[in-house]
UniProtKB/TrEMBL annotation, chain A:
Binding residues annotated for Mg(2+), in chain numbering: 272
Gene Ontology MF annotations: ATP binding; magnesium ion binding; phenylalanine-tRNA ligase activity; tRNA binding
Residues annotated as domain Aminoacyl-transfer RNA synthetases class-II family profile: 135-342
Gene Ontology cellular-component annotations: cytoplasm
Keywords, comma-separated and alphabetical: Aminoacyl-tRNA synthetase, ATP-binding, Cytoplasm, Ligase, Magnesium, Metal-binding, Nucleotide-binding, Protein biosynthesis
HAMAP family: Phe_tRNA_synth_alpha1
Family as reported in the entry's similarity comment: Belongs to the class-II aminoacyl-tRNA synthetase family. Phe-tRNA synthetase alpha subunit type 1 subfamily.
Main location: cytoplasm
Species this protein is from: Tessaracoccus rhinocerotis
Top EC category: ligase
Protein name according to UniProt: Phenylalanine--tRNA ligase alpha subunit
Summary of subunit composition and partner proteins: Tetramer of two alpha and two beta subunits.
One Pfam family from the record: tRNA-synt_2d
From TrEMBL, chain B:
Stored InterPro entries: aa-tRNA-synth_II/BPL/LPL, B3/B4_tRNA-bd, DNA-bd_dom_put_sf, Fdx_antiC-bd, Fdx_antiC-bd_sf, NA-bd_OB-fold, Phe-tRNA-ligase_IIc_bsu, Phe-tRNA-ligase_IIc_bsu_bact
Membrane-spanning parts: none
Protein name (record): Phenylalanine--tRNA ligase beta subunit
Keyword Cell cycle attached: no
Family per record: Belongs to the phenylalanyl-tRNA synthetase beta subunit family. Type 1 subfamily.
Keyword vocabulary terms for this entry: Aminoacyl-tRNA synthetase, ATP-binding, Cytoplasm, Ligase, Magnesium, Metal-binding, Nucleotide-binding, Protein biosynthesis, RNA-binding, tRNA-binding
A biological-process GO annotation: phenylalanyl-tRNA aminoacylation
Known catalytic reactions: tRNA(Phe) + L-phenylalanine + ATP = L-phenylalanyl-tRNA(Phe) + AMP + diphosphate + H(+)
Presence of the UniProt keyword Ribosomal protein in the record: no
Quaternary structure (record): Tetramer of two alpha and two beta subunits.
PROSITE patterns: B5, FDX_ACB, TRBD
Cofactor info, note text: Binds 2 magnesium ions per tetramer.
Record domain FDX-ACB: where: 740-832
UniProt source species: Tessaracoccus rhinocerotis
Amino acid sequence: MSGPNDNFDPKRVAALDPDVVNGFVEAALAAVRGASTSAELKQVRIDHVGERAPLALANREIGALPPAARKEAGARVGKARGQVSQAVAARQEELAAAELAQALVDERIDMTLPVELGPQGAVHPITALIDEMCDVFVALGWEVAEGPELEAEWYNFDALNLGPDHPARGEQDTLWVEPPSAGKLLRTQTSPVQIRALLERDVPLYVVSPGKVFRADEYDATHLPVFHQLEGLVVDKGISMADLRGTLDHFAKAMFGDVTTRMRPHYFPFTEPSAEVDLQCFVCHGESVGNPERPCRTCRSEGWIEWGGCGIVNPRVLAACGIDTDVYSGFAFGMGVDRTVMFRNNAPDLRDFVEGDIRFSRSLLGGAR
Amino acid sequence: MKAPMSWLRDLVALPEGTDTATVAARFTALGLTVEHVTSTGPDITGPLVVGRVLSFSDEPQKNGKVIRYCRVDVGDELNDPASEEFPASRGIVCGAHNFAVGDLVVVVLPGAVLPGGFEISARKTYGHISDGMICSDLELGLGEDHDGIRVLDPSLGAAVGDDALELLWTQDEVLEMEVTPDLSHGLSMRGLAREAASAAGVGFDDPYAIPMPENSEAGQPVVLESDRAVNFVALTIEGFDPAAPSPKFMVDRLVASGVRSISLPVDVTNYVMLESGQPLHAYDAAGLQGTIRVRQAHEGEQLRTLDGVLRDLAPDDLLITDDSGPIGLAGVMGGEATEVKESTTSIVLEAAHFDGPSVSRTFRRHGLFSEASKRFERIVDPGVPYAAARRAAELLVTHGGGTIRPEYTYVGKVPAKHRLNLRSGLIPAILGADVPVSDSIRILQASGLGVTALGDSLSLEVPTWRPDLRDPYDIVEEVGRKFGYDRIGRSMPTPPPGGGLTRRQKDARRVLAAVAALGFTEVLSLPFVSADDVDALGVAPDDPRRKLVRLANPLDDTQPFLRTSLLPGLFRAVAKNTSRSNDDLALFERGSGYFDSGTPDAPRPDLSQRPSDEELAALEAALPTQPDTIAAVVTGNWVTAGWDGRAVPADWRHVVAFAETAAAAVGLRISRVNDDAAMPWHPGRCARLVVGELTIGFAGELHPEVVRAYGLPARTCAVEFNLGDLLAAAPAGGTIAAISGFPVAKEDVALVVDEAVAAADVRAALVEGAGELLESVVLFDVYRGDQIPDGKKSLAFAMRFRAERTLKDAEAAQARNAAVAVAAERFGAVQRA
């Protein structure tokens, strides 16, 4: 480096010659243009912008010039350095963009590859449907009541107006606990839960009771010895068949869309009047009836699907629970959950419900992954 | 109940043009559900006519058969024209030989289709054109007889060319109905006719409206010695022709009703039973000895019933006896000795009213279900025995000759008609429909009730044939079903606020959703087990899981018990899956276990009022313990081998994760304790699951012996715990601490301890010793090897410290040292350099 020129003695510093400076700039710009990667550009930056770059070294020579010449040389070198820096920065942006674009191509993954971080779990379709059914009533403000599966005969039969000699009692194929004289059995219906609700809770009473029930029944495609029911019970002032009908229709619509229900007179010991409840076919809406062109397998072209039983709670049942039948009346209804899964999801064979094949429980997950 | 339409139309004059479908739809709307409408008569189409055999020749064949080539006159319209060889007739080849020239036979002609889709055509056979077929009973669908063709009895009055379809069968439609236990009158044609008349709005004349006569013992002597025999009518027919056949209309209707035709006396009693609802019995008067007495059986008595079985009688059985002893089970089945025989010319007809429950118990005890016992069980009209006996006697003498002795016997009585009062407003109030009182009255009168309106109440007298109408609500139903349920409107009652799911119910749902999201699939299994299932779990003799509840009438004698553990059912599900090549399994089930806790018998409180608190407590105390249980099993791979890596075998960690996920779903943390004595688990690979201080279950790898006993894949792992206990422990809310934004200080420690020391215990010691500054401590390495003495292991923990200020290095180091000190003191843990 030349020493300071304090005595204004005209002195020439070669590195600050305009031509030389321009040469440095040309070389730097050429190098910038030549850099094809960020890594190369980094080296260019070191070579042409860094502390050891020719322009940086030239800059240090400015002090060697006479004061009158310093300004002009300073401006020249400063402009040159700025030009180079800008070129580097611009190139940097170009390269970064190109490299990102390339990376986005290079890093591509086949996002259709199967993903399995663990097994595919599922609740049983019965569990899912029970929750869905309960939720219809929970949304209305009803409660969900539960009770034991191994039940006292009194709850399952006596209190439901099914005395020891009642003809309907023999029809229920009860599974009795040994010895039968001990008065214990596997409940044949969820109705004993209604008695428990009547005894344990205050009126007005609005409950549904889902659960397992047991019958000494065949084990085949349409019968299981263990299946599931959901019953509803309302006891309030002024309850009528119209309330029952409106509630059943609401339930049907919530579960199946725009369908209605109908009631056919029937007999149950614990309700009077009693009815069977049919669900309007939610698939064909009755259009398959008498129309062989459009058969419906869901309702077997009958337009209606047997859904369950219902009625006005027999006042004898209420009286046995200490409820004033002059003030209160009630309705009750009950449906088979397994049967509902069968016709709602076209499940062909009830045995699949209890054999534990994982494919059955996973049926409603939208397909295998 | 099968109701032939022709019979129904005989009993009620339905308006012109009322078709069967309309009648069926009305019955269904009344609660007498018509399940099927069937047609009687054969499934035959095309010409089936009466022919006369004019001539035949028997022609031996090479195959050893002798065929008979017949010329049969089938009437001018269907005969071939006369030729030199034959008069007008048809040529038919027949294999049978049980007929003669001049016999009338049934001929099916080409173009007809016999039952089973058998099409008839003219065909060449045995050197002749066979232009039709002479039919046997089997071919006609009339019976099993195929030995020969049907030769028509001349008494039928058939003529050549007559349509044999009309001759041999009565075309009728039959309603197959489900009659509910309350509508006992629906088990009689007259009861159905009354319903049909009411629905059609036409009148009904009950052919059985003859009232009971004065009591009399002038006929067959009868004494009622049990109050289960309410009344008894006996009529005697003398000079009866035992060979007389049953008339065709009667046989047709019996067969259409599903009752076999046996003999005229038996057919008449069945016919009248179907029509009136009153079961009858016909005795051979010659077989009766002295006085008929109706009484309960004595201990040790026996009776040989009609079916030839010698039966031991129970004191609860109601018997018909004579001076010789028991001659019948009342309302169930007669005895062999007094049965009507081929030689019977004097008949005593019994029509009596027996107590329904008594008959019901007897037929169930002896396994003797019959049309008669079914009707008694559902309670027969106590006012109809005389009318029914009278009708049966008249049918017998009409078709079998003889005379009805004018002296009759009627002992006992008809109970007074049931009466009740009803607020007329109850009917519209309970139906929720605007039913005018006048409609109610009209409907009830059509049902046979006597109705008197008194102000706003109705005074009702119930006819003897409606034992189901007892309470005001029964009357509401009677009006309702005839008013029409479809005319009832719709409304929604409003529950009081505050309902919905309980926290426990919501928590249970969370648990199931969480374990399903973790990857477990729910299955449901049948809860029936064998003692072997429990033995195979390897549990100790005094283990509570051996306290099995036994069923009195199990579905499968090899599985007479109820489960105390969900695991046997899950193991069966594993076997089912692996047998179908579903090898990678993570299954769970939630359900009750049932433990026989030696509870007392369940009481049966009186129903006239609410049971007392003591009675309710006794009911609860009688029931076995039924814990809400959840269990899971894993086998095969948790993650299968794939493009992204190797398989992850399912192991003990996954069943532990099941329990911990379930607990976390309800805001709980499970702590685990190594347990070396919990069957059915591997003694070295089992964790006891503890919530607070309470053990709720176990998780781990199954004992190899259990795996072998159940035929499970090796290394199958399982977890089972009391879900009820978990849910009960779930906190209501929980605490959210302030989140510190200050930097974390990290300290790792490696501690050498004995193999037997549980990692969870070491961790607990560190937590205890580290104090409040500790944010987390995670075990990140377990090392055994060269640098560690035999029988020891090194546990490396990453500890993180944080506070509401920036911690100094020395503070974190001090806390770490304090933590290590507790581990050292408690387990001799030595920090690795």
